[in-house]
Specification:
The protein has about 325 residues and is mainly alpha-helical. It folds into two domains: about 170 residues, 3-Layer(aba) Sandwich (Glutaredoxin), CATH 3.40.30; about 110 residues, Up-down Bundle (Glutathione S-transferase Yfyf (Class Pi), Chain A, domain 2), CATH 1.20.1050. Helix content is about 40%, strand content about 5%. It has twelve helices and four strands; from the N terminus they run βαβαββαααααααααα. It has a four-stranded mixed beta sheet with strand order 2-1-3-4, sandwiched between helices. The radius of gyration is 19 Å and the shape is globular.
Length: about 325
């Protein structure tokens, strides 16, 4: 088994320098009618606190009270040669990995691989599929029974976290439905443009390899933020239907990273959330300060350290900026 070196710039299209995100490989679901049954302690979630896609799964896990059902391992924020890695457990069970750009030192909040004591996330992927050829991304849901990956696509993981374990949950947790039948049309429609222009839009700006690709990505991002600010200008607390839905979760993980990281590191600087989009800012602050599932899963140290340190082609000095003065403004 070898650890493969992958560069972020490998995601850029060779012809026009635009950023292309890969399609996730493992797409099964957990649920009472699935091959993967919702059993307590059976599944393990691998995440990075830095990653907006993994962050979605942590928020839904907390909102649905699934902490007792699904344990978590958190990778170190530095994603260097060899990809995501864990911190040193008391003793590694896997052989010392061949690529050693780091020494597996600790970082507050990062963990070892709680399940298998592995060095790299890539080893989790190879354990599920020795022939795996794509990128080693978080989040990953691992099944301890069949020793395989159930799913590595956040948009699907949050859907089965939303309903898959309902039979065992308390009434309050069961009743929380982040993808209610009557709002699905509206949620899907909003998710689509928010994904393209905002969630992935910031990456298209940041990982653009040409001036043209960058400018082509910034314009729709700017327009989408203006559209969202207008939407929130009626004072609504949530995006759709007057209730918390997955649309809020999916938008939050990008917006909370915007001022600390995307504005500077990814050059998404047409405006900042706090100074230029007052209504988005109000919605953001409400979720962060009033909902522990959002605040407690948001770790600004991991977020800033990851982006500024890991993308050496964008920030070769690896200096992590001290600002903005506050990560998120008070209510
Ligand atoms: N479609 C995936 C995307 C996940 C993703 O791209 N995660 C990034 C971190 S933000 C990653 O792990 N990248 C590793 C790499 O590029 O090698 C999802 O939404 O779950």
């Amino acid at each position: 088994m070898s650890t493969v070196t992958q560069k972020i710039t490998d995601w850029a299209d060779k012809k026009d320098g635009s950023f292309k995100r890969q399609t996730s490989t493992f797409r099964a679901v957990i649920g009472p009618d699935s091959h993967f049954l919702p059993e307590k302690g059976r599944y393990h979630l691998y995440v990075s606190y830095a990653c907006p896609w993994a962050h979605r799964t942590l928020i839904v896990r907390a909102l649905k009270g699934l902490e007792e059902y699904i344990d978590v391992s958190v990778v170190h924020p530095h994603m260097l040669e060899g990809g995501w890695h864990f911190v040193k457990p008391s003793d590694f069970t896997s052989n010392p990995a061949p690529v050693s750009a780091h020494n597996f030192d600790s970082f507050p909040g990062a963990t070892s691989d709680q399940l298998n004591g592995l060095h790299y996330l890539s080893e989790v992927y190879y354990a599920a599929s020795p022939e795996y050829k794509a990128r080693f991304t978080v989040p990953v849901v691992w099944d301890t029974k069949e020793k395989t990956i159930v799913n590595n696509e956040s948009s699907e993981i949050i859907r089965f976290f939303n309903t898959g374990f309902n039979e065992s949950l308390s009434d309050k947790e069961k009743e929380l439905d982040l993808y209610p039948e009557e709002l699905r049309g509206e949620i899907d429609e909003l998710n689509e443009w928010v994904y393209n222009d905002v969630n992935n839009g910031v990456y298209k700006c940041g990982f653009a390899a040409t001036q043209e690709a960058y400018e082509k990505a910034l314009v729709p991002l700017r327009d989408a933020l203006e559209r969202l600010d207008k939407l929130f200008s009626d004072g609504r607390e949530f995006l759709i239907g007057g209730r918390l839905t997955e649309a809020d979760v999916r938008l939050y993980t990008t917006i909370v990273r915007y001022d600390p990281v995307y504005h500077g590191h990814f050059k998404c600087n047409w405006g900042s959330i706090r100074h230029d989009y007052p209504h988005i800012n109000r919605w953001l602050k409400n979720l962060y300060w009033n909902y522990p599932a959002f605040k407690d899963t948001t770790d600004f140290d991991h977020i800033k350290e990851h982006y500024y340190y890991s993308h050496a082609h964008i920030n070769p000095t690896r200096i992590v900026p001290l600002g903005p003065r506050v990560d998120i403004e008070p209510l």
